[in-house]
Amino acid sequence: MGQKFQYDESGGTFFYFLLSFLALILIPATIYYWPKKKKRDPDEDSKRCHCPPCIQKREYLKNAEPWKGPKDLLIKFLILAGWVILILLAYKVSQFDYEMANFDPFEILKIPLGASEAEIKRSYRKLSLILHPDKDTGNAKEFMKLTKAYQALTNEEARKNWEKYGNPDGPGAMSFGIALPSWIVEKENSVWVLGLYALVFMIALPIVVGTWWYRSIKFTGDQVLLDTTQMYYYFFHRTPNMILKRVIMILAASFEFDRRHNSEIVERSSDNEEIPQLFKKLPHLQEKNKEQPMCRMYSIKARTIIHAHLTRIPLNPATLENDRRYIIAKCPYLVLEQVNCVNQLILLAYARRIQHVPSIETIENCMKLCPMIVQAMWEHKSPLLQLPYINEDNLKYFMSKKRHVKTLQQYAQLKSDERRSLLRSLSDHEYEDVMRVLGNMPYVDFHVKCEVIDDENPTEVTAGAIVTVTVTLTRHNMSTLFGDETAKDHSLINENGEEVENKEPAAGEGDSEPVAKRPAWMKQKRGGGKKSKKTGKQNKPPAKHNAKVEESPVPSVDKKKPKEEKEKPSKEDASDESDESDGETIETNDKSSDEDNDNNQRSENSDDDDQEWEKFKKIRDRERSLEGKSKTSHPVHCPYFPAEKQEYWWTYICDRKSRTLLTAPYYVTSLVNQETVHLKFTAPNWPGVYTFTVCLRSDSYSGFDQQKDIKLDVKEAYKEVVDHPQWEFEDSADEGVAENDAHESEYTTDDDIPDEDD
């Protein structure tokens, strides 16, 4: 049996190739590029703020993309046209499959298998009268198939070939079809085909790949110019302790605002007149700074616009206002890059690669700048200015002698009539906007828990151990603080960002993170009775809290006292029962001993279940932390920010005493209801009590920062004692050297070694 290769002459198999190729492109294109309309909330209008800046911002965002409607219409038309072509190709292929179906003469003649020759001739005559081309109902194509079927069954040799090979013509050569039309390899069309190949693969493809590569190497992963990142590294390394205004100068010097690096920047001749006029309204601008690149015109212009934005000075809508919207929209991404650069410099300093370590104030000044940009207000301004319709004239009512309201949380916890009286100058409609915005602002429960994971005693911290601080963030709306009753159930936040409990905690209630509900398969029945509860408490070992949160101090209690107090009731019960008969006493003692054994087993099982459940929770939290980070949380009320903004947070651990950063700032971008973050750092190499601070900072609102101090009672690391007599040293000097080597870890620094006077 021979073989032959042939191109598709009729174009049938080419449709298979075209159909599959079009489907591979069309399906993902429809999923990703089909214009999606946001689900409109019926109550969206009632949730919006109707202050003039918010209305102006919505109009700007609506008109910011004038070609969005025609662009979406064009995309829909192209996708729908592709699907129409796909459907036509599918129909063509289905017809082709029907035509190229297996040849069955019995089915064509509509006779059963094994029919006689007379029946074959009779059926042929009957069908030929209907399908003959000369008849009105004739069909030439079907008549040819009918004739071929008649010949296959009436010719003895053709019938044998069909029964043996499935083909009346006998065995044929095995053919391999190439799903391309034959005109591609024809000699007359070779020039055009080669020209098309050269255009696609030698010109168009290299240009597309080269353009993509050239653009990608200029930016970091966060779409920040590499030149800007290098400039950040230089200045933050040069000035380890940088003030806030210096951070603003470096931000304005970013090359994203330079025409030579960014073609989207617009330079006008009117800037030479408008920018100097703003100098008079903006003190401390330092426009005469001679340092490169802060002295360049683009940097001075960007710095002037940022200062005008923070001061809320209105700009010319036709010129500088457009520049302000572009520059301010870029600032949050650039500030995030500044935070990352400072963090990398701190890591390099710890690795002894650079000399100067940036202080904690530098990275915190970068974080402070982000909410300032979003809310368009300086750091020293009142957080109440973030509410609509609130200006400097309204603040005098908040700072009266009777009331001293400084934060948004304090204002939310007032009674409704007191809140209204402070804003009596506003109309009812304006006051509703204020309360709507205030009620949607975040109120975050900030809980901290320290432990040493994968250790026998997770609550005991030893020198050099890896400490895991679990930060649990639970977000509520500020409306939960409205009124006196709800305020009692939540902790207050003072001016320093520290939580202050509004009520005394119940007995046995600590500041640990909220415990998740246990599943049904982890629950276990427990025997009732007072004795069982007492025995369960006695058998449970008391936990050692070496890592404590300073906001919820636990008074020190002697370890012997709880045992003595728990033993007293048992002695009193024994003295009371001594008056009873001996028989009853023996029976009750036997029963109580059996109950105690049962309760002991149940309490041990319940403790094991608790430990298993805790391990399960930790594994689940680790898996969640490894998942992809979402960028959607809650919208921010920021009428002066030119784009939509979502609530993001930074959380980290620092040492205020030494002004150092212990963990890299974790950027929380998906705090919708609750988020758990695990921060890890190495415990100090020397035993002692250390105080560290866990911080939470918002990148969208001012006055919402929180911090908690944690105390670590670091114990001396355990020494492994191996009883091998053959390894013992006879010389005492060698033992002293080995002991000193074991005491010093590889993380020990000169600063960690205490002085002799201490």
From TrEMBL:
Signal peptide: none
GO cellular component: endoplasmic reticulum membrane
Keywords for this protein: Chaperone, Endoplasmic reticulum, Membrane, Protein transport, Transmembrane, Transmembrane helix, Transport
Localization: Endoplasmic reticulum membrane
Limits of the J domain: 104-166
Main location: endoplasmic reticulum
UniProt KW RNA-binding keyword: no
UniProt feature, compositional bias: Basic and acidic residues: 547-573, 588-605, 613-630
Bias-annotated ranges (Acidic residues): 574-587, 728-738, 747-758
Biased composition (Basic residues): 523-546
Parts of the chain that traverse the membrane: 14-34, 73-91, 191-214
Bilayer topology term: Multi-pass membrane protein
Annotated segments matching region Disordered: 498-636, 725-758
GO biological process, one term: protein transport
CDD domains recorded: DnaJ (cd06257)
This protein's record includes keyword Glycoprotein: no
Name the UniProt record assigns to this protein: J domain-containing protein
Organism in which the protein naturally occurs: Cryptolaemus montrouzieri
